[in-house]
Design brief:
8 strands, disordered C terminus, Helicase, Ruva Protein, domain 3, two-stranded parallel ribbon, Rossmann fold, Zinc Finger, Delta Prime, domain 3, globular, six-stranded parallel beta sheet
């Protein structure tokens, strides 16, 4: 049984299942889901708690099986937690987990409640025998980072939980968008900022000035999300992310590699379409999936062949810049070079032709003609 994080509270009010698996890469949501399950277990009489952390090849899986079969000496029920930080239990762990799930499914007494905590899993791990057994034996909860588009709604829900809200209409949307920009990619900090607002201001409506004066800039940017912002034509966000990555000390070579991989994929897809292949087939052959696939479907028909070729040439120049090689027509600083590359891409992907030009002029970066040097 699979649940979303927002469904967990309602589920727990109806009663506990013998096995819960929480997995994903969002620390705040994983922590809150685990705390909710622990609180429900305590309320149901689980006065004893055991924690097992499976690290390395020498973890005693038999001890976990024994804990599930033993009865608590101090309470009628017990909570057993299993944490697998690597998400890879190995051959022995896989067999033990499948055996453990059989025991959990066959325990009619409900004396043992189990919480399994895992990191983000790839497709092969999600289809493995041990994870399939966990999913079949109990409740599976996937905790993922909130996408940028969903952050305003998430913030509004969190504020409402402490009886606070923003203004209605467009003014409130601008306030939530400002808040989201300041905490993007860092939900733990967002949670702290929301709690701070609850301490600073009474219940009721919050104005833009109140949020602006209270909320710090605690955003954390993912280098792999930069390419998505560029392909989506999100000019302001892409430039802000690039500045943020530089401020956080990210390696310029990694940022360049990420952008170049997207450019190479666009080139392969454009070549495939030019050769007569349907766009879906060209995307599959270029190994473009998920979010990137939807973005490519929008961008590829809009780009001329010479545009992509120009990006390839620019990426080659940037490759030299990040490795310490100067170019007479490009900035000396590699981050300035990456900014120029991003702006060149945004000119082709922005929804409005003037979007990237306006952003470039507003930020005082290199002139429009210089982008095509």
């Amino acid at each position: 049984m699979q649940l979303r994080p927002d469904q967990l509270a309602g589920h727990l009010q109806k009663g506990l299942r013998p096995l819960y698996t929480v997995w994903g890469d969002e620390p705040l949501l994983a922590q809150e889901a685990g705390d909710a399950i622990r609180a429900a277990a305590r309320a149901a009489g689980c006065a004893e708690r055991q924690v097992h952390v499976a690290i390395g090849q020498h973890f005693d899986w038999s001890g976990l099986i024994g804990a599930a079969m033993a009865r608590s000496l101090f309470s009628a029920r017990q909570l057993i937690e299993l944490r697998i930080p690597s998400g890879k239990p190995g051959k022995d762990g896989s067999a033990a987990l499948q055996r453990y799930c059989e025991l959990a499914a066959g325990d009619a007494s409900g004396d043992v409640i189990t919480l399994v905590q895992l990191p983000r899993l790839d497709r092969s791990q999600q289809t493995s025998a041990w994870f399939t057994a966990l999913d079949a034996a109990g409740v599976t909860l996937r905790v993922e980072a909130i996408a940028r588009a969903g952050l305003p709604q998430w913030l509004a829900q969190r504020l409402a939980a402490q009886q606070q809200r923003v203004q209605g209409g467009e003014a409130g949307q601008r306030t939530l968008a400002f808040f989201a920009d300041r905490i993007e990619g860092n939900l733990l900090a967002a949670h702290q900022e929301i709690q701070k607002l609850g301490l600073l201001y009474p219940a009721g409506e919050l104005g833009f000035e109140q949020i602006e004066s209270a909320v710090l800039n605690v955003a954390r940017y993912d280098v792999f999300k930069l390419g998505e912002a560029v392909l989506a034509g999100q000019v302001a966000r892409a430039l802000r992310m690039l500045d943020g990555l530089q401020a956080e000390g990210e390696a310029a070579v990694l940022v360049h590699w990420t952008l170049t991989e997207d450019i190479r994929a666009l080139k392969r897809v454009k070549d495939g379409v030019a050769a007569g292949k349907p766009l879906p087939m060209a995307l599959r052959e270029a190994r473009v999936w998920g979010t990137k696939e939807r973005l490519f479907e929008r961008v590829v028909p809009l780009l001329a062949d010479d545009t992509v070729a120009h990006w390839v040439a620019a990426a080659q120049v940037c490759d030299g810049l990040v490795k310490g090689l100067n170019h007479p027509d490009w900035p000396l600083d590699p981050w300035d070079g990456l900014q120029r590359l991003v702006l060149m891409m945004l000119q082709g992907t922005a929804a409005k032709a003037g979007g990237a030009r306006s952003a470039a002029q507003g930020r005082g970066v290199v002139p429009q003609l210089a982008l095509h040097a």
